[in-house]
Amino acid sequence: MAASSAALMSYLFAPKPLFPSTGRKLLLRSYGRRRASTIGMELEPGKPISQFKAVDSHVHVWASREEASERYPYFPGHEPSLPGDSEILLKCMGEANVDGALIVQPINHMFDHDLVTRTLKKHPSKFIGCCLANPAEDGSGILQFEHLVLKEGYRGVRFNPNIWPSGQKITNDIGKAFFSRAGELGVPVGLMCAKGISFHLSEIEELCSKFPSTSVILDHMGFCKPPINDEERKAFSGLLRLSKFPQVYLKFSALFRLSRNSFPYDDTGELLSQAISSYGSNRIMWGSDFPFVVPECGYKEAKEAVSLIASQIALSSLDLEWIMGRTAANLFQHSWTKKI
C-alpha cells in the first residue's frame, strides 16, 4: 500500500469521537436467549403496544429510466429489470399500512448514494437509510461512510462480501476498520450472505468477538432455506449459533427467497420458530425486499404472509409486534418518530 494510503489507514484505525447516538447501549443485551414475550418488552414505559406501527426493515429504491438518463445513472451492468422508485414504494406501504422503512442502498447505483439520499430528505418521517460499504483498499470508502452517517443521516451500512476485492474476506483490514467505525458511530452493519451463511460464519464470529459494540443484522435469515439435507441443517444451526452474540439481529425478510413454496411461504414457519427460540423476537425484524417482492406475491401480501405464518406457529401477538416493527424501532432509535 502506498505511503498516502498507509497514512489514511492509520487515521481510519485511530480512535475518534463518538457520533452522538453512540451513547446508547445495545438494548435488551441481557436477555440473551429468552423469548421477548417474557420480559422487557416496552419501548417506552407505559406506552400501549397498539401505538407501535409496522416497519419494513428491508427495501430498495432506484431511479426511473428517465431519472437515470438525466441525473442518477445506474452502475454499468446493474440496470434494474423492474421499476423501483420511491413513489411506487410509498403507494405499496400505504395500501399495506406500513408506516416506515429502512432503505438499503441498491447495487444498481453501487456507491453513488445521491438517489437514496434525495429520497431520505424528501420523506424523513418515512425512511431511514443504510449505505453500501465500499471496500476500496485505499480507505476512501470509509471516509464516504463517515460522511453519509455524520452529514447525510444514514443509520446503517451494508456489507456485501461479493464486492470485496477478489480473494479477500470481510475480515481484512478494511472490513475491520469499517466494523470498528460502525460501532463507534452506533451504526448497525447489515450482512448480505447471498452465497449462504456457511461461507461467512467464521468471519462473522471473528468480527463480533473483536467488536462487541457493533450491532449486526443478517439479511434474509442468512439466506437459509428450510433445511432438507445435512448441509442445509448445518448452515441453519450456524445461523442459530450466532445468537450467542447479543449484538446480532435477524431479518425475517424476502420470504420468497427462503421458501420452497409459493405464497404464503408457510414452510418458513419452522425457521421463524427456531429463530425466536434462539434470538428472541426482540432481535428479529420483518422486511419485504421491495421491489423484488412485488412480482413474486405483492407487497401487501408479503406483510400478510408473516401474520399467516405467525398464526401457524402459534406466535403471540406481542412477539408479532416486535417482528413487525418494534425491533427495528428499538434498534434504530429516534427513527420514524414524526408520524409513528
Automatic annotation (TrEMBL):
Coiled coil: none
Keywords linked to the UniProt accession: Decarboxylase, Lyase
SUPFAM superfamilies hit by this protein: Metallo-dependent hydrolases
MF terms in GO: carboxy-lyase activity; hydrolase activity
InterPro entries: ACMSD, Amidohydro-rel, Metal_Hydrolase
Ranges for domain Amidohydrolase-related: 55-332
Family: Belongs to the metallo-dependent hydrolases superfamily.
Protein name: Amidohydrolase-related domain-containing protein
Organism: Dendrobium nobile (Orchid)
